[in-house]
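Re: that chain you flagged

S.,

Sorry for the slow reply, it's been a week of failed gels. I finally had a moment to sit down with the sequence you sent. For the record, here it is as I used it:
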Amino acid sequence: MVKTRVCTTFVAVFVVFFVLTIFVYRFLNRVSNKSSDGKFYIPMNPHMYIQQDKSQTDYSKEMDQLNREQVSMDDPRLIQLIRNHWIENPSDAEYNLQFPDLLDPSAGQAPFVDNRMSFKERGFYVECGALDGETRSNTLMLERLRKWNGLLIEADPSNYKNLKEKHRKAFSINACLSIYPFPVIMEFKQRFSQGKLIENERDRGGKKGTIIEVQCFPLYSILLAINVTRIDFFSLDVEGDELKVLQTLPFDQVDIEMMTVEYKHIDLGEDYLKNYVENKGYDSLVKIGHYRQWANDIIFKKRKRNFR
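Prediction finished late last night. Pasting the structure tokens below so you have them in one place:
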């Protein structure tokens, strides 16, 4: 009886100690990312800047030529133009967030990925569309809490202007992701979080929105421009063109650990998307939803290889 009580007490003490250890670790991890005034900060990584040559002032003519030629995704001329004239380096200014005390503005994607990535520090993300860099962002928590760097892609110039004012610690680009394996100019309907490419008359009609022309680049081209082909987390929400964007991506050249992909507006449907991504070596982990339809995502994780 005494031995049983001793064992029970020991187990209880061990469990309490374990839980307290985890709590203290998470608390200190969070506090360590705050400055003396209580605001979150991120130590900048000097290696996450790229050197740019902006001496070429009339680069638009060359870009028009590359669009007409439908050059390949890895064309050196295209990569150089994106690097020098479209990519913007991470901000080193303090955050300028509308809701600075809201650590996670996502609909659940960020904490799920954080957990499955074992609370990884200093990872790299890509988020498209990034909106204003804060509203329902799937990457802001990872950037602030885990010191991640990344790439923010937003096609709508109005959203992008607001994004730049947030001072995110990430590369950014005001362009759309091409649905073809080459750069192209396309029409785009501006509707804040519902903005999308116009591919047919159905897209042109429907809900009102200002129609503009936008430059679209293959994702692979943008990644080459910032010298990154290893991505820990890719967030893709482009109002129906997610599958087409993924189909341009050479998965044998780009290593992506986890992805969250919106499925709601894809014409071929959720199952087709799942089958496509799973055939590229991923497992479907979970569907993320929201009662206000702010999220209709599937989260994928790269399947581990069994070496024999």
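What I noticed first: Residues 10-46 have pLDDT under 50 and may be disordered.

Talk soon,
D.
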